[in-house]
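#struct-help
A.M.: can someone run this one for me? Single chain, 327 residues.
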Amino acid sequence: MEPLLKVDDLRTQFHTDAGLVNVVDGVSLELKKGEILGVVGESGCGKSVTSLSVMQLLPKDISKVASGSITLEGQDILAMSPSRLRKMRGNQISMIFQEPMTSLNPVFKIGDQIMEAIRFHMKISKKEAKVYAIEMLKKVGISRPESVVDEYPHQLSGGMRQRVMIAIAMACEPKILIADEPTTALDVTIQAQILNLMRQLQQEKGTSIMLITHDLGIVAQMCDRVVVMYAGQVVEETDVKSLFKNPKHPYTKGLLASLPQLSGNQNKLKSIPGQVPALDEMPTGCRFAPRCEFRMDECDTSKPNLLNVAENHTCRCYLYQKEEIPS
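D.P.: on it. Structure tokens below:
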């Protein structure tokens, strides 16, 4: 099946005091119709920058897509004009941002913010758009939607604001939804409601979802396939069952080992030593080498490639060179 969205060898650079640095360095991924793809990794691994590169929402004065390609149903997003990009956003691809309080405009009513997207893409009257906005608020589980359309973001709870963000994102029934840490700063009960809502919308509309998170529990619950990112690169990719049953990359193993176990036999949680390297201080060889318990001499001197270590399972690590299978 041809993927809806294809990112191939993407390099996104930022201007810093040290010069141009690669924040996203050679990332490739695919999103198929109706699937939920998890993109996981610690903060600073390039997950959000990858998604903003896809949406073409990075500030052009400090960043640029240096190379690679991003295609949506075969159309080159990087070659689209500003007017074509505006038509694409919200209509074909929508995004739920990390913090709804800063994503919603505090001086506009909730209804106006939903209606803006509806009227831009659907070309309907203001009266019809308001009826549709109320309907969308009902769909995302907001009680008293007739009142909420006339309220401001500060009058709503965090969970309700996130539901409004989902209503805006889903208003024009996009084919792809990018959700960037959609449950950050929400309590556990509201998190579960938001995830159930996204799953329900995905099943009803057949929407493909790229779910960006650092929470492996959410990945296990929601995703079909998983891309693990570290320091701007993909280090492992496979289906969700294989990732939890047979993780390959030492970084992935470290992330999974840091999860609490239901058995209760752990005296303390494991942690990965060190931290993600700074953008202008990347190691010469493997970027995870300084933190890796399996570190070898070649890890310090040369960059490992993504290897096919099993069917539909890739890993960027020298440990598996002898196990590589033909692609």
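A.M.: thanks! The chain has a mean pLDDT of 91.
D.P.: also worth noting: Residues 99 and 276 are 23 Å apart (CA to CA).
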